[in-house]
Design a protein that fits this description.
By secondary structure, this protein is α+β, with helices and mostly antiparallel strands. 42% of the residues lie in helices and 20% in strands. The chain contains 14 helices and 10 strands.
Amino acid sequence: MDKELKNIHARDLLKLIPEDKFASIIKDTNVDFQVKKLFGRTMFFLLLYGLLDSKRSSLRTLEQSFKTQKFKVLFKIDPLQQIKYNSLSDRLATMNVDFFKDVYEMLYDLLSTYYNETDRLSYNIIRVDSTMVAEAANKLEKGMIIGNQTDKKSKQVKYTFSMTNLFPSSAELFTDQSDLNEGVTIPQVIKNYIDKRDNNVFVFDRGVKSRKVYNELDQELWFVTRINPGAIYEVVGSFELEKNLVIGNLTIKADEKVILFDKRHNKSNPFRLIQTEDQKGKALWFVTNLLEDKVETIIEIYKKRWDIEVFFRFLKQELNFKHIFSTKINGLQIMLYMTMIVSMLILVYKKANNLGYKLAMFQLFYQLDDIYGEMLVERLGGDPNLVFR
């Protein structure tokens, strides 16, 4: 198979899920131990199918999908097996999360070989950011209260993602009140990042404010971020800067080596501080430990962060990530991994067929109808090539 997939069909996408490795993960994680219904494979494909049909997906609609001949034929499910939506809820609350995590990591490793884009900046750029999801009526097993809510009828959970090239490359679920602080969650995701290449550069927004965190990250990796203009610092050196340099809509005002201070006057390691101003006179300050690169490179790396905002919109608008299938922590983690798995398959399909998000989702789901029709014709002893031409 070519290293870059082009013009693929839904059947090609499903073939990217290797049955032998899939079966090995089921065995290794013991996901089917003492289970009479909803085996790991069945649950996986039911959730995959439901997320592809995300505009109407819920536990009750998953129950209806499971009853259809189409689902059972497509994914080779026992035609006599039946389930109830409360069985789905129970399985989400108790299934081994490691099964879904291992399937995600297996598919990430596989799919990233097809679309491991080489950035012209020569760095492997990882965008890191968080998104919040709320559940009304205080149903969540554990969650955060946002703002000054006195009635506390709505809890939220935080998902912090990293994104590399096309794909989500790691993610964590956070539910403690202290996890509202991005200085806690973003460094944790960065340190747990699964791809440990030497040329990784992590880019994140100014939610991480702790100088201590900067120092800790500085010991292990490269990063580019923003800080609030007016931050306290001491200049310890400067970089050569072209006069009246403009990059995109930013005028570069200063490029210096500084020591940053926090409100308690704790010092940072020496970092590079690039001060800029946009066309409206708004100040934008960037901090990095990349000391050898041109200022243009630093600005371009930071601009890559916007890709993860687009990814979040895709998750919430197209994959219904704003809808909570389970109020239990275990179920939330399972749905996190399943959402990342389905997103990777859609992103591969989207890029391979040069489509937008909505059209890719629509076309992919309805191509499953073609596969279903072909399978029925074959079962009746006919030639699907004579029917589907």
